Here is the input.
Amino acid sequence: MSPRAGSAGQPTLAFVESPVQLLNVLEWAHAHALRTQGSGASERGAAIPAQGGPRSGAGSTAAIGPGASGAGPDAAAASAAAAGPAREKFILVVLSPTDPMTRGQLRRMAELARDEGHEVRWEEARGGAAAPFRTVGGLTPLLRRARRVVMGDPFSRYVQLLLTITRARELVVVDDGTATMEFVAQLARGERLVRWHRKGGRPGARDLLFAPVSAVARRRLTPRARRAVEVFSSMPIDEAPAGVTVTANDFSWTRSRFGPPRLTKGADLVGTSLVETGVVDGERYLEAVRGLVAAHGARRYFAHRRESPEKLHRLAVEVGLEVVRPDLPLELIARRGPIGRTILSFPSTVVHTLPLALVGTEVRVAVCDIDPAWLTDGASPRAQGFLSGVTGTARDVDRLSSLSPADSPRSASSA
Here is the structure.
């Protein structure tokens, strides 16, 4: 990809709708700079020292400048200046959701993007019936001029609509969690783009109305002679379509800016939104968490941004966990610390990303399988297979068997 792609009149545009997407856009920008500036830049990037010193708590709202949580603007600027190769500056468009926790994390991540020198454009994309028309209309001139478009969620109807407008010669898809695995597989098989937990159900009226737009977006995401497509991912990808460039995300930006973390005794547990998406039964989930706490001594529960307040209240009151609502993606929280020496998780993105973000530390990541009995009647027919695949393809994690309410998890061999 040409390093001149972000020159005046032909900017790089990035569209994000979640904090994790924004983090991975910053990781892509870091990796892209290392690639385009050659081996000398790679050596400078590899030589970045880890930042030590005290860290703020996992859910705190302390300053989050690069390096240490208490660093001021001057320290943040000095850290950025010493961080290796100069990065192409781009326009990062936040298509803001309505969920307060997600919005808060996005605003925190936007601060980090501005620290890197990128322009952040915040769009109230869901602020009323007229918001989509206003947002798309305002972005159309930028889309027409963009040579490269970076996106975090190709399943998003918003992103698919924007793809029908752009003439960009280069499209980049960065991770939006484990959904990236499904996106690449569907693209390789020429299937319509449908999120894994919805696949198998009958398309609704809105799906049918939007089908022509989705079809155009899928064609745009298929490489052509005059259009390059890159997938930047930390996920295992086995079915990459012909012509798609797959680039590994090793979280080098995160590791260069934060940590190493201070480790605490005991275990921390990572929450999941599988109950909220209708995949896992709420009572079964509560029993599984109770079993993990009893077996591993977990004390803190890092809530997923989509988990319901009611469920989190029960975890605190009935299970006795300290519920933490992170103010940043968990990869940054864990790298900043303090963090438990063991991190427990159900099948999710973090079983792939945390071992990369925490490489070189003594943190152990362990994943507990989802028992088929936990699934709801409305779960997609593909749910169990997809979740098993997420666990089975994870590297550098320990496997824990699923547990019934009467059992506790049993350690299995490392994956």
Notes: The domain at 262-414 is CATH 3.40.50 (Rossmann fold). Residues 1-8, 39-82, 404-415 have pLDDT under 50 and may be disordered. The two ends are 35 Å apart (CA to CA). The longest strand covers residues 263-270.
